[in-house]
Amino acid sequence: QVLSLPIVVIVHGNQDNNAKATVLWDNAFSEIDRVPFVVAERVPWEKMCDTLNLKFMAEVQTTKGLLKEHYFFLAQKIFNDHSARLEDFQSRHVSWAQFNKEILPGRGFTFWQWFDGVLDLTKRCLKSYWSDRLIVGFISKQYVCKLLSTEPDGTFLLRFSDSEIGGVTIAYVIRGKDGSSQVENIQPFSAKDLSIRSLGDRIRDLEQLRNLYPNIPKDQAFGSHYNKEQTGKD
């Protein structure tokens, strides 16, 4: 006999997300010589960061992993704490319930359901953009407003949607004649949307987008991702 990697048997596709969470938690945090099915209920946040990073890089098949500022955003999300500093999270422990049972405040899904949606979207539609570091991704809407509010008209960045599973949205700044700024967020694009028209082509279509934050002309940043336009009956 030999110990296998964790296995979960499901009877319907809607259980797939929960099964993947169970396998991930068991695989990452169980002891090799443990009693079968005994896994820690709480794990250090730093170990969770390593696990999420390895999972992201393996699923998306990229060498560009998560950054320190990404972990900070994810910690704020899973702990529902926007007042703590980055260092404050390093000593905390995250529970299985916070990871895959408790619904995020004001949402209809768990942290893992949201993160798995980001994984799926990035793997299917955004791999090259992520690998070129064109997507900030893991950043809050509030922090985006702070970043963009002092930038020139048409400055934009890309982040993963907070309100939808598996969506990427574009935030950009509009500056009025009086110098006041307003940050707008475009309706998130899903994998289905991006299979119809790619993210690069959508960015090219939107004339109000000019420079990728902090100051890269959009054609320079995304030009290699534009598809050659076809003319004719299409």
Automatic annotation (TrEMBL):
Protein family according to the UniProt entry: Belongs to the transcription factor STAT family.
PROSITE patterns, per the entry: SH2 (PS50001)
GO-annotated cellular components: cytoplasm; nucleus
InterPro entries registered for this protein in UniProt: p53-like_TF_DNA-bd_sf (IPR008967), SH2 (IPR000980), SH2_dom_sf (IPR036860), STAT (IPR001217), STAT_linker (IPR048988)
Entry superkingdom: Eukaryota
Localization, UniProt: Cytoplasm; Nucleus
Record keywords: Activator, Cytoplasm, DNA-binding, Nucleus, Phosphoprotein, SH2 domain, Transcription, Transcription regulation
Primary location recorded for the protein, binned into one broad class: cytoplasm
SH2 domain: residues covered: 114-213
Organism (species): Dryoscopus gambensis
Entry's transmembrane regions: none
Protein's GO biological process: cell surface receptor signaling pathway
Residues making up the signal peptide according to the UniProt record: none
Gene this chain is encoded by: Stat6_1
Entry keyword Membrane: no
SUPFAM superfamilies linked: p53-like transcription factors, SH2 domain
Protein name per the record: STAT6 protein
